[in-house]
Fold this sequence. Notes:
six-stranded antiparallel sheet
Amino acid sequence: xxxxxxxxxxxxxxxxxxxSAQLLGAHTLREVEAVLTSVTLRLMHSRYxxxxxxDAAQDAxxxxxxxxxxxxxxxxxxxxxxxxxxxxALSGPEVLMVSKDEIPQTxxxxxGAPDQHLLxxxxxxxxxxxxxxLALGRVEPPFSTxxxxxxxxxxxxxxxxxxxxxxxxKATQARENTLLVLGLAMEARDYETQGHTxxxxxLSQQLGRALGLxxxxxxxxxxxxxxxxxxxLNIPDRVLLKPGPLDESEWALMRQHTVTGENMARRVPxxxxxxxxxxxxxxxxxDGRGYPDGLRGxxxxxxxxxxxxxxxxxxxxxxxxxxxxxxxxxxxxMLRDAAGTQFDPALLEVFLSVLTGDSPSPQx
Length: 364
């Protein structure tokens, strides 16, 4: 083998390793597509690169990510059989290479783009499922056979990354559905609390984003919101659904639901320590007079302090066995009155801004 050939192979291997390393950091389908287009643009010295994902429902290829000088519009949809991308997708696993002097009339062109040399790499799983097509072009020089082979390797790496991201997405959705079912199981015991789980999940995410919480904390908060009342499944109906005040022994049973819920949630695969903190501590009070541990102030986990506001607000503004709903202004007044006693005053300020639509204060 000539030294020049060896160097080309080594350069190709380095490029493939570079792409593979960056794909490892991409966790969602959109992140994989972004890495695949941007890194391919750089490593293949192209004028543009775009990824067309398969929209199975519409039987079309959809431009879902692009990079470079001549980006086609995102959302551009090619029905089955239209354009060179579909030709590549339907003709087999190899990369389609088209010289700029041989572009057929059936090609789909971007307005104002010059004639250029083109490559189209289909991404297919081992089961022959089409995921999409990676397309790139440049004016000069023409793509070489070596570059065609390199793009095929890029497509294989992208396929693996997309499959991994898709399976992770499925696992996340399955977990989300499991958490929702567990939350709804509690609501099924009491018609008047129906909708509480979804509402508290949604509102707690709004508050978390207003506070600038990182994605991992938002995930913990969402899990905790789904499962916060899980322990009430162990509370007898005579206590849980009692229309009047609870006596001392009944309150003792009710206060156990946070600990019971934490223990139950530990057995649910994937539930995080942060979520467990929400389940256990969302009835703690800023002044230390809450339960189950009598935590005070910032000793209470941040996410539990946050969720306590959401939980109480939703309970006040919707009918429960032991009280009728009050208006939102009345509920906000009660929350303000409890600042510094029941609730973290800094978090309360942000929560009120979220509810009223004012600009939130800086993160506490």
